[in-house]
User: Which sequence fits this backbone?
């Protein structure tokens, strides 16, 4: 545990999410940005209800636009997943990156969810939960067909491992 | 056990297996007829008081005022007559409610903990409440399997049968091994916990509300107090006030400590590995918890700054399958001397190494992050204050806030010293924190997944936060800011088959295009 040379490295999961996920993230971030800027503009310069200067609203708009462009691209480079015979491995996030590994024997439920925006792009989210509240693995932005396949596969695989998963 | 319910044809819990439909529904102990109405009356007390005050103010006492007492009493009686339970060969079932029927049913093999609680009134009547824990995530009280009102003896036997402790109850008692017993000298640790502050806050809140309710704030002669106090120097008044406050908070803390922890006893029943831990505590309300050995997957030793200064600590068990939000019932030792805590922790883990092994530090970059994180926000805030003072917006005495910087640095120093981890005797050990320092030891068999989380700053420093998730305690054991290589090696050593398939040796691995600044 203390020898420092030639230590193995944890590689990234092999599979990437659907390229359309970038559009999905951009769309939801864009909607949030538009709402935020609109609210600021209305309560600020337009109605003079709060003392928010116009340049501040413009600044927030520019930052939000940068977020809408950068975040989905960055996120797409990070988000990856992999399912082996004995484990599920995911990598998510962008600024904060998180890798999660769960043994197949500890999987409790496999959820398939399609949000409104995700459905627009034919995407779905697969969530794998374990008995720990800190241990859910989420694969966002999978192609819907691929997601359904994965849910079936996981359900079969998790079933074949004995134990009560705690 | 002379209740009419225990008629011969009613099988005792855990007796000869009987098909579910053959087991008769049973009522709780009839002595609950005394407790339920009183409890309902207490619940209706504010409304009753309002009615009473309104009635007296109007100078009349109408017959319907009696309803105010009759309704709660009737509700209480109804509660008794509509609550049934039964224990079949396979399930525990609880049925209650007249209008809103509620049936709770759980398979016997899902029963993980059994808590036996007795409030003061219960104790006077020789009754207890049995809570059957199934590890539900629900926080709704209605969803808990509470058998409120069983005779003490019956409750003990039920617990033994539910947890399959074999010949339990009176027979097993002599084989119980007492691990720790309450020592009144431990009360000295009470003022060093936050319990006193919480209690004082609560008491102040209640007092203020009461005062407000009776219109006290209007009568409060604020000017009189200020004028009366003008004779006092602020240098005298403030320290005296603080000392009085400290005494009040300490007194409350000691009271709280004694009420919850009096008679604290931790015993182990049965054989070394396949028995159960049995906890008992409480001065007025007694609480008994039994946890199966198999369910204990680790311990968490907490030694917050104040407690540590007095060489004290407390320890709780990481119990898988305990209902969420009930961590209090897994306390293995209340605030007490550190050697006692270490001994209890070692006994519960079955090995002394995770408690005593010196931990491997996390290196200079992890320590450095403690300093930047503690002092960064303080520096920004202080820059604003200094700027405001220089611009004449704030008075000069605001510069006192500069003392926050050394305080933050001391805190960072303590936090840096805390960082450490180890993997010994198949236990993952991690320590971190200062004001809330914790040393957690989790058996590898209790780990149900690994998370490696790193922000952009952490990645630049080559650090990551390794989280071992588990189904008990705080749901995870966190190894804060450990060098990436060490984190991977640690998880790999703990679970070689799991991690091995995702590892690459450094020579063969091409730099991944999607992992900038790993």
Assistant:
């Amino acid at each position: 545990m203390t020898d420092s040379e030639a230590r193995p490295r944890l590689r990234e999961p092999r599979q990437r999410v659907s390229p359309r996920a970038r559009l999905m993230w951009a769309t939801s971030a864009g909607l949030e940005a538009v709402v935020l800027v609109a609210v600021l503009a209305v309560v600020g310069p337009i109605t003079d209800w709060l003392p928010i200067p116009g340049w501040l609203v413009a600044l927030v708009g520019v930052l939000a636009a940068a977020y809408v462009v950068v975040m989905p691209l960055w996120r797409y480079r990070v988000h990856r997943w992999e399912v082996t015979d004995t484990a599920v491995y995911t990598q998510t996030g962008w600024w904060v990156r998180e890798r999660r590994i769960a043994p197949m024997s500890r999987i409790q439920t496999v959820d398939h969810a399609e949000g409104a925006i995700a459905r627009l792009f034919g995407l779905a989210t697969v969530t794998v939960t374990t008995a720990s509240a800190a241990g859910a693995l989420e694969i966002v932005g999978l192609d819907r067909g691929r997601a359904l396949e994965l849910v079936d596969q996981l359900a079969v695989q998790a079933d074949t491992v004995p134990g009560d998963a705690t | 056990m002379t209740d009419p319910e225990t008629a011969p044809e009613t099988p005792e819990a855990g007796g000869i297996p009987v098909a579910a439909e053959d087991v008769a529904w049973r009522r709780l102990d009839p002595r609950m007829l005394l407790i339920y109405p009183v409890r309902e009356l207490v619940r209706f007390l504010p409304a009753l008081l309002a009615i009473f005050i309104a009635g007296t103010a109007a100078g009349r006492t109408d017959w319907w005022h009696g309803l105010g007492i009759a309704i709660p009493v009737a509700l209480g009686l109804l509660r008794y007559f509509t609550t049934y339970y039964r224990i079949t060969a396979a399930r525990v079932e609880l049925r209650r409610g007249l209008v809103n029927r509620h049936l709770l049913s759980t398979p016997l093999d899902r029963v993980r903990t059994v808590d036996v609680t007795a409030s003061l009134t219960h104790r006077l009547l020789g009754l207890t409440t049995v809570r059957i824990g199934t590890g539900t995530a629900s926080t709704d009280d209605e969803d808990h399997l509470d058998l409120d009102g069983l005779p003490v003896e019956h409750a003990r036997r039920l617990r033994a049968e539910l947890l399959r402790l074999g010949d339990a109850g009176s027979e097993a008692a002599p084989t119980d091994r007492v691990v720790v017993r309450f020592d009144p000298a431990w009360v000295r640790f009470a003022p060093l916990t936050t319990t006193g502050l919480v209690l004082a806050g609560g008491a102040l809140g209640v007092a203020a509300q009461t005062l407000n309710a009776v219109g006290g704030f209007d009568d409060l002669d604020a000017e009189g107090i200020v004028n009366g106090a003008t004779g006092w120097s602020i240098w005298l008044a403030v320290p005296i006030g603080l000392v009085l406050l400290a005494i009040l908070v300490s007194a409350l803390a000691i009271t709280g400590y004694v009420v919850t922890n009096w008679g604290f006893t931790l015993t182990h029943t049965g054989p070394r590995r396949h028995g159960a831990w049995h906890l008992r505590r409480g001065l007025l309300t007694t609480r008994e918890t039994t946890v199966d050995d198999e369910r204990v997957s680790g311990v968490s030793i907490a030694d917050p700054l104040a407690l540590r200064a007095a060489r004290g600590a407390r320890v709780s068990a990481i119990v898988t399958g305990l209902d969420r939000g009930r961590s209090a019932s897994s306390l293995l030792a209340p605030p007490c001397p550190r050697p006692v805590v270490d001994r209890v922790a070692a006994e519960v883990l079955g090995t002394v190494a995770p408690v005593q092994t010196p931990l491997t530090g996390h290196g200079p970059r992890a320590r450095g992050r403690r300093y930047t994180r503690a002092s960064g926000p303080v520096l920004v805030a202080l820059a604003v204050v200094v700027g405001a003072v220089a611009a004449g917006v704030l008075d000069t005495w605001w510069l006192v806030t500069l003392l926050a910087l050394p305080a933050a640095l001391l805190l960072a120093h303590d936090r840096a010293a805390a960082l450490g981890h180890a993997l010994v005797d198949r236990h993952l050990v991690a320590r971190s924190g200062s004001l809330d320092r914790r040393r957690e030891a989790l058996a590898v068999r209790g780990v149900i997944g690994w998370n490696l989380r790193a922000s952009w700053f952490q990645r630049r420093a080559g650090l990551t936060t390794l989280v071992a998730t588990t189904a008990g305690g705080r749901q995870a054991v966190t190894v804060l800011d450990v060098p990436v290589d060490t984190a991977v090696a640690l998880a790999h050593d703990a679970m070689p088959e799991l991690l091995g398939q995702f590892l690459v040796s450094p020579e063969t691995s091409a730099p991944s295009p999607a992992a900038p600044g790993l």
Observations:
- DSSP finds four helices and eight strands in chain A.
